[in-house]
């Protein structure tokens, strides 16, 4: 009788394996991935059958896009190496951008300081201590012009990590490009503009959910009409993961947010194929290599199915999950920071094996402060070494077909789908957030994870095992605290030079339009060109929209 | 005593410390604050109770902001259950109630743990309410989590009790039957834009109609539909709360309530006293079997020890 | 003092919204038996001091990851002193460079906990501080 794999596996388990384990017990009682996906000793064709290939995997560049969104992936073009940067003044950030572009980076990624992210000018009382610390301070178009001075906006693509006031910063970018003679229809880049995750995990919201969704839809609509090469949103799982969610939750809650945006855009009268091709995503890459690769593939497959079956899209470009990845900051340690270079390498590899379209690698001093030039160089080199020396870019989805990987991909898809169904039963993602369901899930994961580290059950090298006595690190980047004064002077100068009646008029217009359904973006463009400050524009919106009050749920 | 002087001077820190003393050592607090605690009530006390997730804190925040706009001073006591495992507590009501940049002399918020007492009614809480009363806020708000009979006792301390419910939480009507009906002077259906709100409202109105407590009563609890996030229904709710102390029927009801509050406080004080004494007494005898005689012996010891003091 | 009667305020000052660590500490301290009041994010130093006084806490724990610690932590200490509440012990955590720690600790922050701190270390600090105060 012919031997079947099933029978042989059983035989192997009950004899060869069993006998071996009896002599030397395993390191753990049970094995699982970081996200609680159980892991067996061995995976075989029993876990993935060839007959399922066409349905589950198919071919890259075709539905369900499991193996990749382009037919030949990195054989055609490598991912964009896009290091998040920005701090201090616009001049300092401009210098760092030029350095990175010189060093071979292929796209810009702008970090803004917290006052800017929350729509406050540097002279606002709440900006005390915060100006220029976690990113560049942008108070008006004047700062934006300095930020991109000497950088040809028709030649670079720029990603801006800005959410609540995203439409306003986009307007500034458009205005700068116009001055350079670059039409908006040629501009390439992204604004993060994902307000839902702010309520869940990141905290830089301004207005309540409803008016915030309106601003998102306004930008989707504006970009669909006038900026075909621009990604008006980067629906993010990164921050959700960093807040403590596991890989399954990262996929589930990100796609749930995406579904919510699609529904809102449809309700505003847009057709799915009009805006969906411009949606982009943003995920984290953590240490469990195979789980991360599986996660990206599961996300692609699940999203394709949702767009096709739930939203009935016709255009295949609507079904493609395009994403940027950042290696997981929360996995890096302050202890023995050089270890972080190794962690980042593994995480970057996972992202590449997972088919990311662009990648940011963290610097080794992540847990200590903003990266020094040296550290950021190593981070960039990590990507370059993977790209040019490792060989993984020579074929598409190289790990595809690994029995373990396909099992994990199926698992993650299945569990994420369960979350999506539960969220749907609550009505919508906004409701699930209001009920606190999402936050509680994330917190439970975060708490469990932290406890496992403190108990020693989960080992973090250098932190709770293999510790050393160390000297505090020598070079850390610090931001000059006098920056705030400098910015305040700048604001005063801008206000002196501009036509204040013009500014007041457009601000009043914005208040009026905010109360109607008209698209606000053209008015933002007018306002920034008149050198209205960011704080003045969001101030006008705050009057109409109100401010969001935090909801913390334990 | 220093703290009483501080209270008289309307020093907020003294109030905060007095509350801590009342929480940590209720018997001593009763001695120290005797004159304070036996004063007749000054503030209008509104209690809000209801299951977790019903949005009580956000409602309270809305009430506070309206009261402050009308130049009233407000005190808020927010009670949360302590952890049955560790005895600790994570008090997160404040962050939903606190309005940033508000003059601290206008709004005083204190978070309290039930410290293991079911009914949310720790002896400290009774004393704290009295202390806040003495301090003299125009409006005193008391928030507790209430889902059943036990959790509801603390509401006896309030003049006007609102029960907050939200649609689709499942057993809200069950909860009604088990005790919240006994304390409610008004109902709030919060998050009223959710599906099921109308149904809940109708169910409540029907329960009120058929409840023996409200047959031929002076007072029938109104039902308000609100959405604390959009502001819907909040003006009406606030107007009602503000005007209750002037409502004839309510004032009659209040008289009865105040009598019951006095009753209740005396009863609670007795219970506290005997609970503490019982715990002490249990340490004196060796207890290896139960009999009514043993209990009698212990009661005797407790009463004797009182005489010795 | 009995553990259940030790009250601790955990606050996030400034605009930084990363609250995973603060939430963890708040829950873990509760699980260790303390009474914890969590203020949530975006608190001004004035809000924090107001809360500390009204809640009559013995400890205030500040969390900040945005680099604004030198200004904002010290503002809290300054305001507590102004209100006559400098007996309240202030500690902090987050992303705080090692060479800022001596300065902060000399200006009234009793202890700064770097990333990787375990909850037991925080509890040890709290208990030791209480014991020292009792003598």
Task: Walk me through what this model shows.
The complex is a heterotrimer of chains A (554), B (309) and C (135). In chain A, 49% of the residues lie in helices and 7% in strands. With 554 residues, chain A is of the alpha/beta class. In chain A, α3 runs parallel beside α5 (141-147). With 309 residues, chain B is of the alpha/beta class. Chain B has a domain at 38-247: Rossmann fold (3-Layer(aba) Sandwich), CATH 3.40.50.300. Helices cover 49% and strands 14% of the residues of chain B. Chain B has twelve helices and eight strands. Chain B has helices at 2-8, 12-24, 26-32, 34-37, 56-69, 94-97, 123-135, 172-183, 197-210, 234-243, 248-284, 292-308, and strands at 44-50, 74-80, 89-91, 107-113, 139-145, 160-165, 186-189, 223-225. In chain B, strands 4-2-5-1-6-7-8 form a seven-stranded parallel beta sheet, with helices on both faces. The mean pLDDT of chain B is 83. Chain C has one domain (3-134): Rossmann fold. Chain C is built from five helices and five strands; from the N terminus they run βαβαβαβαβα. In chain C, β3 (59-64), α3 (69-82) and β4 form a beta-alpha-beta unit. Chain C is globular, with a radius of gyration of 13 Å. The model of chain C has no long low-confidence stretch (mean pLDDT 93). Classes of the chains: A alpha/beta (554), B alpha/beta (309), C alpha/beta (135). Chains in contact: A-B, A-C, B-C. The interface between B and C is medium-sized, with 30 and 32 residues.
Briefly characterize the structure.
By secondary structure, chain A is of the alpha/beta class. Chain A has 21 helices and 10 strands.
Low-confidence stretches of chain A: none
At the first level of CATH, the class of the domain at 38-247 in chain B is Alpha Beta
Class per helix and strand makeup of chain B: alpha/beta
Question: Strands of the largest sheet of chain B, in order across it?
Answer: 4-2-5-1-6-7-8
